[in-house]
């Protein structure tokens, strides 16, 4: 670029982009024509206006990759162009032929082009050489050179414009101030700016009207006005049933193929499509209404009006943009991904609830940067800060960014000295992700990601239309029926003899239409209505109150579940921790014996060791009495934590109620326990902590010197405090027994007791402490400070110092046992589902130890069952060796963390799932929302089995939507999972009835209903085939008009539909014998075996009915109406009788419906004289012929079923009889 030349932007340079572009183009020209510029010739001239670029300059956040790549070329692809020592123009020059002018007046000019860079020709550029052969260069070459020059010219211009943009951002221009020239060297905010331009974003609150970023509107709708009809039609006609009937209906528009009334074929199909479209439209409208409520929620934005006014504006959530400064209040939803800038708390601290994001209900601490916490007005925010953030990613636990602080201007000066800019790192501790909740105070944040770029949206899978497994099975059977129809039609035409008639192909199509009832269109209507009945039965079940069916298309899949993927927090547990046990090695306290602990704490301050300084410089070797030991551990528990007490205030008066905020519910449970026994956490800030001895109402003060937070690597947490009463220094620590056992002093009881507590399902922590002398402490401080400044392996260096100086020979005080309360009847429900053959996976974002404890207490891990742990496998080398044991012991349980799961899914996906899908239980910890969804998809892909996912938080939405059946729990984590799920329940224990009872009924009923409807269609088609065969293979209709429509609607639909009210066993037996559920997963209720069995029954009964009718009345034209009257009534009575002998449990509705159907048939006979011979129907011969025909068609079927049930009764029949 031109040697260090600087450029300045005026007050509203974004609005004066043309001026800025002129300077950028001029600088690019200087770069590309150094020889010419040196001669002093001006390159100025009329520049083309680029007002179209202004829109992209107005944004509060400018994606730096657009500044780098929009011309289709990266800076790092330009050879050595950025190297100061490399020539800007190659020594090997070309002469181009005259070209048209480029933006100025005058004659055409020529340009100079290097191999690495190019220029745009202008009318005042002269030839360097006048060589004749150069003037004769071909037109094609000249055109290519001109094109190359133009591209490179504007590339350089764009890079200059990019520098101007960055300079504007770094100069901190405020309203009404014109920035002076800034050195080009100060454009680099840090040394790696150039390498990060392609991914980093520069965001400023000064101008936040950019349209370069996604809208913040939320949309969970499946359709829009343009896609609704196409998607619905595709979803319907992808099923063979509907496509077949569409073709049949269309064929009736051809006169030669028309049989009967056109409405007989068109109306049923239109009715099916209309019902489906209305139901889908209603569901989508409800989703849009929920989205509208969220999108129209108002938020207070500070920088949408003139900064000098200091006023705020209420902006709808959908209209928020990157760069907006939003003020949030307590219990307010965070509308977009934001960076925390300031809180109402003087220390800059704020707590947020992340339950809708990661499923954890414990509050997370967020800290505002010190540079922005001290700002006092909106003008300071808009003029003094800007952000650099990375591209949006899925990780909710990681964030990298920088805050650039532009300090105050020098008094009386309008310049901003960029050398004084300060840069502060931003981490996840400064983030407020979308749909989290501010739990304390108020806060100001800057929007950095909106809409589909927010963390939650990136971890959410798009919704799709779910189709039940039964639908696919019926679709396959329908293809067999279609082939049967085609083959039968061809056979009947060929059977007419050779040579074939000239219109034989028309006869084939007419037969296809005649036999279309084999694939009954009413099947779709009946199944959809049946699903609505199942949904109503589920929602009206008083034993599972408030259950909601949101997707009514898949209730049958509830009876086919083989894998259950469950969240932990809020799903299996109540998020209600309670400390149950305190163990001191020689004695333990639990239940009523905790009253003894209270007595010891009550008299604690009467002991001199708690009020007077001790002369001992280390852990005393004096034997302590039991009361002192109890008080020591209670005091340590009350101090060693990260809990902060928060008091609500009303009218300036402090209430007695206190809310504890912490990142771990375990710590809150322990602090509540210490309060219960008499030592209360009273106050806390970053530097001090105060306890209240409730018996004496005396306040005990401690100075906090160091805190060592808990993490999954160290598995422990420590604190150094100075006792204000005794001036003693104490290092206190608590952690998992696996790491604390080597830190505390030698003992002979720790391992045994931790094992005992774990078997009780308690979450254990080992408590220890160590008294520090001043010299040791000062040595630690010096070494720890040096380690904290290390540029490499900083964390490891700091941990080594802690281990060397502090974690040596701690006094073992005792053990704590905390219980995470399970949901009601979780143990029973899991045991039932396990016995029902369901493989249960627990996918949680919680820690490994926590997940293991909950799995044991919930009986997901059985007593004595081996738990194979795989953690921290982050390299593919040797990863498969960890799975070898699982191949030999298929009854073991796998416990794996998210890091290892990612490695296996990336490198050994097939091998991993082939092994683990056969395990009875799998626990996956530290899973991201997307990992949960990926696991659900992979199980479906590898097994082809039905997968049910259940959760209660926003982090479970993706998993729920990826499942075959998604179940959401309404609980403490809100309703987001419930709204996105197919079924919404209030408690986990409701799931057992939902699957074992309602799932069983839905599947069995739909399977039987489908078989009866297919049987009904086959029955009338067989009668038609017999008639056609005995009518010399002519495609003549046996039943026409109302007889065709009434057969599948008024006369048989209601009785057949009664099967949706039937049940084969009593409800209590499904819980008593959950093993019956296994049979459902095999799909035996509707299989190829049952299909062919019903086909044979239909063939037999249809042949008997039609042959006897033709035997009694013949097929002559004068007796045709009599024959139709006889065979038609027999078809109806046969279908009703088949329903009667198939019902297992009768009720009044069934009886009244069958009676009403028969009465309707009898009443309509006189009204339809064209279809029935009234004299014959009222004769005695008609009656005995009907009785004989029905007896011959039904008795063999009933007898075979009766014998089969006696010889080989199904398991459900055995259970019901017992």
Automatic annotation (TrEMBL):
Record's keyword annotation contains Membrane: yes
Give the principal location in a single coarse category: membrane
What species is given as this protein's source? Scheffersomyces spartinae
**Residue ranges of the P-type ATPase N-terminal domain?**
205-259
Q: What domain of life does the native source organism fall in?
A: Eukaryota
Annotated P-type ATPase C-terminal domain ranges read 979-1209
| Keywords from the UniProt entry | ATP-binding, Lipid transport, Magnesium, Membrane, Metal-binding, Nucleotide-binding, Translocase, Transmembrane, Transmembrane helix, Transport
One Pfam family name from the record? PhoLip_ATPase_C
Question: What's an example GO cellular component term for this entry?
Answer: endosome membrane
Query: How does the entry describe its membrane topology?
Result: Multi-pass membrane protein
Positions of the region Disordered? 41-117
This chain belongs to the protein called Phospholipid-transporting ATPase
Gene transcribed to yield this protein: NEO1
GO terms for biological process, alphabetical: endocytosis; retrograde vesicle-mediated transport, Golgi to endoplasmic reticulum
């Amino acid at each position: 670029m031109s040697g260090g030349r600087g450029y300045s932007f005026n007050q509203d340079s974004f609005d004066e982009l043309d001026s800025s572009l002129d300077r950028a183009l001029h600088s690019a020209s200087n770069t590309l024509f150094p020889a010419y510029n040196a001669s002093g010739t001006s390159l100025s001239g009329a520049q083309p206006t680029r007002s179209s670029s202004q829109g992209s300059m107005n944004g509060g956040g400018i994606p730096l990759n657009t500044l780098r790549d929009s011309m289709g070329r990266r800076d790092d692809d330009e050879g050595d162009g950025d190297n100061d020592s490399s020539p800007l123009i190659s020594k090997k020059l070309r002469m181009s032929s005259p070209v048209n002018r480029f933006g100025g007046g005058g004659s055409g000019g020529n340009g100079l082009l290097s191999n690495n860079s190019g220029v745009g020709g202008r009318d005042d550029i002269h030839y360097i050489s006048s060589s004749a052969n150069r003037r004769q260069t071909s037109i094609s070459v000249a055109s290519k050179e001109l094109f190359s020059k133009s591209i490179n010219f504007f590339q350089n211009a764009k890079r200059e414009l990019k520098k101007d943009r960055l300079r504007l951002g770094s100069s901190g221009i405020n309203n009404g101030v014109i920035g002076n020239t800034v050195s080009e060297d100060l454009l680099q905010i840090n040394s790696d700016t150039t390498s990060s331009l392609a991914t980093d974003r520069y965001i400023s609150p000064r101008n936040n009207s950019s349209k370069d970023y996604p809208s913040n509107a939320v949309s969970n709708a499946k359709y829009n006005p343009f896609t609704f009809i196409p998607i619905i039609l595709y979803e319907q006609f992808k099923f063979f049933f509907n496509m077949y009937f569409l073709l049949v209906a269309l064929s009736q528009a051809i006169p030669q193929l028309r049989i009967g009334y056109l409405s007989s074929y068109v109306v049923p199909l239109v009715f099916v499509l209309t019902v489906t479209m209305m139901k889908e439209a209603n569901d989508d409208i409800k989703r849009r209404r929920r989205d509208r409520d969220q999108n129209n929620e108002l938020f207070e934005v500070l920088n949408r009006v003139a900064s000098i006014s200091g006023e705020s504006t209420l902006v709808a959530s959908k209209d928020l943009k990157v760069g907006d400064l939003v003020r949030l209040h307590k219990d307010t939803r965070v509308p977009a991904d934001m960076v925390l800038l300031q809180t109402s708390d003087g220390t800059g601290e704020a707590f947020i609830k992340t339950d809708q994001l990661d499923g954890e209900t414990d509050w997370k601490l967020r800290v505002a940067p010190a540079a922005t916490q001290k700002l006092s007005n909106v003008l300071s925010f808009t003029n003094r800060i800007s952000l650099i953030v990375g591209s949006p990613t899925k990780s909710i636990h990681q964030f990298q960014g920088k805050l650039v602080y532009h300090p105050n201007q020098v008094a009386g000066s309008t310049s901003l000295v960029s050398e004084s800019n300060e840069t502060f790192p931003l981490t996840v501790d400064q983030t407020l992700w979308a749909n989290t909740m501010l739990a304390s105070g108020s806060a100001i944040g800057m929007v950095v990601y909106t809409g589909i770029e927010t963390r939650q949206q990136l971890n959410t899978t798009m919704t799709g239309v779910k189709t039940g497994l039964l639908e696919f099975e019926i679709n396959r059977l329908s293809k067999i029926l279609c082939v049967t129809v085609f083959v039968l039609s061809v056979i009947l035409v060929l059977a007419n003899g050779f040579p074939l008639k000239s219109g034989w192909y028309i006869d084939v199509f007419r037969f296809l239409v005649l036999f279309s009832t084999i694939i009954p269109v009413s099947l779709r209507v009946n199944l959809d209505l049946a699903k609505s009945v199942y949904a109503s039965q589920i929602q009206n079940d008083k034993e599972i109150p408030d259950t909601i069916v949101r997707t009514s298309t898949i209730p049958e899949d509830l009876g086919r579940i083989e894998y259950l993927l469950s969240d932990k927090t809020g799903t299996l547990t109540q998020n209600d921790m309670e400390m149950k046990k305190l163990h001191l090695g020689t004695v333990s306290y639990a239940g009523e014996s905790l009253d003894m602990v209270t007595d010891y704490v009550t008299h604690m301050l009467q002991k001199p060791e708690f009020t007077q300084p001790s002369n001992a410089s280390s852990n005393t070797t004096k034997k302590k009495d039991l009361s002192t030991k109890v008080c020591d551990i209670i005091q340590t528990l009350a101090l060693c934590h990260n809990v902060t007490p928060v008091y609500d205030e009303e009218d300036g008066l402090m209430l007695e109620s206190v809310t504890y905020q912490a990142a771990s519910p375990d710590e809150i449970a322990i602090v509540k326990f210490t309060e219960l026994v008499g030592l209360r956490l009273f106050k806390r800030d970053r530097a001090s902590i105060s306890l209240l001895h409730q018996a004496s109402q005396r306040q005990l003060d401690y100075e906090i010197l160091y805190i060592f937070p808990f993490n999954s690597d160290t598995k422990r947490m420590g604190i150094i405090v100075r006792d204000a009463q005794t001036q003693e220094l104490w290092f206190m620590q608590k952690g998992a027994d696996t790491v604390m056992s080597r830190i505390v002093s030698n003992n002979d009881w720790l391992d045994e007791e931790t094992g005992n507590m774990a078997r009780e399902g308690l979450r254990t922590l080992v408590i220890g402490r160590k008294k520090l002398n001043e010299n040791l402490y000062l040595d630690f401080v010096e070494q720890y400070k040096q380690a904290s400044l290390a540029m490499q392996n900083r964390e490891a260096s700091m941990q080594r110092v802690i281990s060397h100086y502090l974690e040596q020979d701690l006094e073992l005080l005792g053990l704590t046992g905390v219980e995470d309360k399970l949901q009601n009847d979780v143990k029973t429900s899991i045991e039932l589902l396990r016995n029902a053959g369901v493989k249960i996976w627990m996918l949680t974002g919680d820690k490994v130890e926590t997940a293991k404890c909950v799995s044991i207490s919930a009986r997901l891990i059985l007593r004595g069952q081996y738990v194979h742990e795989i953690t921290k496998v982050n390299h593919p080398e040797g990863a498969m060796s960890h799975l070898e044991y699982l191949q030999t012991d298929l009854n073991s349980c796998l416990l794996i963390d998210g890091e290892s799961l990612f490695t296996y899914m990336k490198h050994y996906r097939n091998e991993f799932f082939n092994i683990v899908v056969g395990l009875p239980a799998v626990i996956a910890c530290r899973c991201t929302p997307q990992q949960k969804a990926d696991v659900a998809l992979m199980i479906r892909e590898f097994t082809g089995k039905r997968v049910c996912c259940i959760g209660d938080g926003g982090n479970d939405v993706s998993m729920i939507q990826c499942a075959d059946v998604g179940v959401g729990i309404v609980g403490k984590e809100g309703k987001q999972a419930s709204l996105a799920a197919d079924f919404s329940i209030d408690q986990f224990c409701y799931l057992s009835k939902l699957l074992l009872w309602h799932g069983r009924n839905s599947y069995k009923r739909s399977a039987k209903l489908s078989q009866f409807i297919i049987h009904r269609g086959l029955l009338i088609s067989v009668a038609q085939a017999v008639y056609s065969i005995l009518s010399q293979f002519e495609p003549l209709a046996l039943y026409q008009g109302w007889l065709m429509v009434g057969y599948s609607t008024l006369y048989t639909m209601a009785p057949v539909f009664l099967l949706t009210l039937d049940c084969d066993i009593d409800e209590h037996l499904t819980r008593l014998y959950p093993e019956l559920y296994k049979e459902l997963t095999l799909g035996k209720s509707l299989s190829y075996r049952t299909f062919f069995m019903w086909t044979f029954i239909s063939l037999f009964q249809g042949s008997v009915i039609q042959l006897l009718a033709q035997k009694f009345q013949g097929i002559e034209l004068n007796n045709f109406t009599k024959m139709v009257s006889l065979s038609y009534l027999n078809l109806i009575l046969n279908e009703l009788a088949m329903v009667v002998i198939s019902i297992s449990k009768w009720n009044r509705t069934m009886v009244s419906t069958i009676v009403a159907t028969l009465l309707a048939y009898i009443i309509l006979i006189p009204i339809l004289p064209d279809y029935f011979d009234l004299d014959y129907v009222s004769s005695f011969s008609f009656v005995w012929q009907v009785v004989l025909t029905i007896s011959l068609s039904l008795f063999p079927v009933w007898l075979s079923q009766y014998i089969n049930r006696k010889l080989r009764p199904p398991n459900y029949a055995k259970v019901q009889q017992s």
